[in-house]
Amino acid sequence: MQSEENKALAFLILDPLLTYPDFSLTLSKGDLPDLNLEDGDEHKVFVIATVPEDPTKITLNLQGPLIFNMTKRLGQQVVVEGQDLQAPLLKQNAS
Fold it and tell me: What is the pLDDT of residue 38?
């Protein structure tokens, strides 16, 4: 995701279900007033990835997902209590 006004401002966003298939949100239309969601509008959820110098330590912000109304091209970030702020992208295998 990249700013149109400031091309240097960009965020890597990913579908959280790719790494965390159990990730879920319970939100109502009232929780997302800026999205103007109506029945039939397509919406998608993404999370912001933080990429440190060591790419094996990439984390995902599951606490602040981005919800997009794809039909109207609108987006909003929400805060979800009980989710990890820095969830590892690459889960460690148990030995």
Answer: 85
CATH number, span 12-88:
2.30.290.10
Domain extent listing, the chain: 12-88
Q: Which residues contact 11 (CB under 8 A, 6 or more apart)?
A: 1, 2, 48, 49
pLDDT value of position 92: 58
Query: The tokens of 88 are what?
Result: 């590892």
Cut 0.85: pTM above it: no
d(CA 86, CA 89): 9
